[in-house]
């Protein structure tokens, strides 16, 4: 019987993360990553266009998970219910067993400004794509943009809390708590004429 | 008597915008911009590090205006009052006479994906800087990040409305209306346990 082995992509990802974390992102080459799991540099580049892609591999999948959440919501769901459905998809995407991987990944990103910018850019792409999905569901402006940007903000803050040391709540539980904080915060905003 | 003339930077900016809008951003060179107002390419590069900088020249000033708004708020102002103070600073930064310039600039940015990304990046820098200012004023997390990101969202949506064809409300008035819409939207968000 053949013992189950994670796919080549996953092995390369895990190896890259270890090397980035221990030797530094800049100092690690694609060839070293491949070598550390007994593969060639050429194999590495069949799976990832560059070293940075190893860290941002899941981005498209995360965006699709959010869109799947929206698609599964009832036809007549109001904007913030669509947003809640999108946020709910993060729960499957970041199960508890992925938390250590996400923590290690974050330590790598925190050490490099270009990676931090890419990470921020990721959130703005998530917001833009979600906004498109809400407009396609008939949500008018500016509600679609406001709801989508708020969802990305809530997700970003919740994700940061989820990977904090000692945190053990699920990302969904944290998202709901952050959304409630946002609601309470905005509820007291002065919006009269200045 | 010497007639007042706008500074060299302003003349280069206005000329660049006209050329970008009529001939295309990609097709316009720094030398052509300089030439069109009787200056040399060398003078252009004393004022702007590259062609793109002409379009993003005011970014640091906008961020400073937002921070100035926060600094001027009373010591005991709650987070969303600090945010309202920051948003209020946009009113002086974008007076009615600047609207046509901003509209023309947007047509240039809309034609180029890299410029659109830079513009989105600008908003995330604004949010990050505002978050730092709120934390420095003692606002705790996640309120500081939520308030700062919401301010950037409201500003972004309000700015888009401000430059829309036929719009004649001030940016401050629009911001207050967008903030009220955000509040009403989030107020009905489902935040119970899923």
UniProtKB/TrEMBL annotation, chains A, B:
InterPro entries: DNA-bd_HTH_TetR-type_CS (IPR023772), Homeodomain-like_sf (IPR009057), HTH-type_TetR-like_transc_reg (IPR050109), HTH_TetR (IPR001647)
Pfam family, one: TetR_N
Record carries keyword Transcription regulation: yes
GO molecular function: DNA-binding transcription factor activity; transcription cis-regulatory region binding
Domain HTH tetR-type: 6-66
Feature: DNA-binding region: 29-48
Key words, A-Z: DNA-binding, Transcription, Transcription regulation
PROSITE patterns assigned to the protein according to its UniProt record, in alphabetical order: HTH_TETR_1, HTH_TETR_2
PANTHER family: HTH-TYPE TRANSCRIPTIONAL REGULATOR RUTR, MYCOFACTOCIN BIOSYNTHESIS TRANSCRIPTIONAL REGULATOR MFTR-RELATED
Protein name: AcrR family transcriptional regulator
Upper classification of the organism: Bacteria, Bacillati, Actinomycetota, Actinomycetes, Micrococcales
């Amino acid at each position: 019987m053949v013992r189950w082995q994670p796919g080549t992509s996953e092995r390369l990802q895990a190896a890259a993360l270890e090397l980035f974390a221990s030797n530094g992102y800049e100092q690690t080459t694609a060839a070293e990553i491949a070598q550390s799991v007994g593969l060639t540099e050429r194999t590495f580049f069949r799976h990832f266009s560059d070293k940075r892609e190893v860290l941002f591999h899941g981005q498209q999948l995360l965006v699709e998970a959010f869109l799947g959440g929206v698609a599964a919501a009832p036809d007549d769901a109001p904007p913030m219910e669509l947003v809640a459905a999108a946020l709910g998809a993060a729960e499957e995407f970041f199960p508890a067993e992925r938390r250590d991987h996400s923590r290690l990944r974050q330590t790598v990103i925190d050490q490099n400004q270009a990676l931090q910018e890419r990470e921020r850019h990721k959130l703005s792409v998530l917001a833009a794509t979600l906004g498109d999905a809400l407009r396609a569901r008939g949500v008018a402006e500016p509600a679609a943009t406001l709801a989508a940007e708020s969802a990305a903000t809530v997700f970003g803050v919740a994700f940061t809390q989820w990977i904090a040391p000692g945190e053990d709540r699920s990302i969904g539980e944290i998202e709901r708590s952050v959304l409630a904080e946002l609601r309470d915060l905005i509820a007291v905003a002065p919006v009269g004429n200045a």
